[in-house]
Write a structure and sequence with these properties.
With 149 residues, the chain is α+β, with helices and mostly antiparallel strands. 30% of the residues lie in helices and 34% in strands.
Length: 149
């Protein structure tokens, strides 16, 4: 595999990023979610990153800071590049930036259909803090993970 570069997300990345959206958000409607991603990028541009191989965006992560707390809104990697350290590089970058913003707690809400991603979060010290029924809409429950920085 070619070298993976992590850089800040820019608006022209959103088309490729929105293609990856359904990996992290099986409940999402792509066009609607693309607008959500655009808003996150506008409001928290220093917390949105992409992983690039060659000229291709193969993953992304976005977070939102709320005081001393942050939420990992999304992290997704193209299936072709999963298991190759791309997600780890994205999460490492995001957590490094969050620490620099004096964030003390980081949360992640994982759709129950993506529960297989939980061991990934555990590598970084996240632990299950609870769950929320219908968090993403009727029948779309969330597993809540928490990390103390």
């Amino acid at each position: 595999m070619s070298k993976v570069y992590i850089r800040k997300m820019v608006e022209c990345d959103l088309a490729e990023v929105s293609e990856l959206t359904l990996l992290a958000n099986p409940h999402a409607v792509k066009d609607e979610y693309k607008r959500y991603l655009e808003d996150l990028l506008k409001n928290q541009p220093d917390l949105s990153f992409v992983a690039v191989v060659g000229n291709r965006v193969v993953g992304y992560v976005q977070a939102e800071v709320r005081g001393a707390m942050a939420v990992i809104q999304d992290i997704a990697v193209n299936k072709e590049f999963q298991g190759r350290g791309v997600g780890e590089k994205l999460m490492e970058k995001e957590l490094q930036v969050l620490k620099g913003k004096n964030v003390k707690l980081v949360f992640a809400e994982v759709h129950y259909k993506c529960a297989s991603a939980i061991p990934f979060y555990y590598k970084f010290g996240f632990r299950i803090a609870g769950f929320q029924q219908d968090y993403f809409g009727a029948g779309h429950d969330a597993i809540i993970l928490k990390l103390e920085l």
